[in-house]
Amino acid sequence: MRAALLTLMIVTAMSNEAQVTRKAAPPPPAPPRPYEFPRAASRTLANGLRVFVVEDRRLPLVAASMQLLAGHAYAPPEKAGLAMMTAGLLREGTKTRSSQEIARAVDGAGGRLEANAGNDVATVSMTFLKSSADVGFELMADIVMNPAFAEEEIERQRQQALSGLQVQYASAQYLAGAAAARNILGTHPYAWPGDGTPDTVAALRREDLVSFYERWYAPNRAWLVIAGDLSAEEGFAQAEKWFGGWKKQGPADEPLPGAPEPQARVLVIDMPTENQTQIAVGQPGVPRNHPDYIALQIGNQIFGGSFNSRLNMKLRANEGLTYGASSYFEPSRFAGIFEASTFTRTEKTADAIRMLVELLKEFRENPATDEEFAEAKAFLSGSFAIATETAASVASRVLTAEVHGLGSGYWQKYRERLERTTRAEVEQAVRRFLRPEQLSITAVGNAKEFAKALEAFGPVRVIPAAELDLASPEMVKPKK
Prior knowledge:
Cytochrome Bc1 Complex, Chain A, domain 1
């Protein structure tokens, strides 16, 4: 019996060893499968609305998405949250339909109708069956062109927003992300909190919403993409029918400032009850149309864009400092953010930050091995086709190319550009961009346990969480 058990243990150990070996040496990526991004026909209506139609007969669905230059960056900081609330209220009633009537019409047709806002744009999108496409277009046009901004809906939306902010402001993870944007971008229009603060949301009034809508919502500031089971001419006819009467107004575009210069600074948000520290380290990023964007995406995939990235493997697998660490680029039209984030035990805060900064320094000197480079390109190329499986996702990609000025053939040649990018180009892009000596460091947690140790990275500014005001230039609530 003992001999049999010993034999079983040896066989199991050999099996486990073989499994470990296989995990340590995965097979090389397979060649990319052929994929062609659908082409879009384009036309500009007399009122300036730029329309694109993508014919996609795979499913009997029609998706449409409109983006308008009416995002967070166009609201002043003292009215942070205005763009989000304006977009959110579009679906909550028009001059001829109540919120409940809109909801019943969408549900009755089995469709989807949504509106939200990001840094640059407000987005209104819909997906309906081909047989119900007219219903979808009618509803979409109604909420875009005829919002009511009823007082009772404003108050309901406000209370929901304030309730959400109350939860978010008690979250160290939320505060780390929001404070990091301010720490990295300072007072740039992209730095202010898009969902607002308790004070700014509470102060918004109907006249603010109406004024914002009337200034920024216009066809000559918008792009419309229609994709799905219809021809180009059918799509243009729908655009003309439902949006052709929309009146042009104001300038088509108003450029925003470029990214500020990176600065070495340490910001600590003090939450004494926390037993972990949320950490964000970064610098201003690049706009989406930057010539180095693809090379930097490959580099980021290597550094912190996947589970087996250098950042996660070092901090999680090797050092046991965290359950997860990652990095990302958030590009907008005129600037962006690069950020690496993680969390750790309070007593390990300085160690984790030191390790993260050292990894960024090392990454700048040695951005990619041959194996890392091949794996990163294979992942980005393979995931591209998966991310464009639906008509709605195709519409979203077309909008990205148009809003950010990438060119009409950008997505058709994306994988080709990706494949042509060399390891040397990635290394050059990373070294041009990354400035490890000028990183903005943000930590949210029990400040008295680690703030002193962070002075090794530069002057430390500590703000108690109860005094934090993300819409104030100095990030501190005025004293009463």
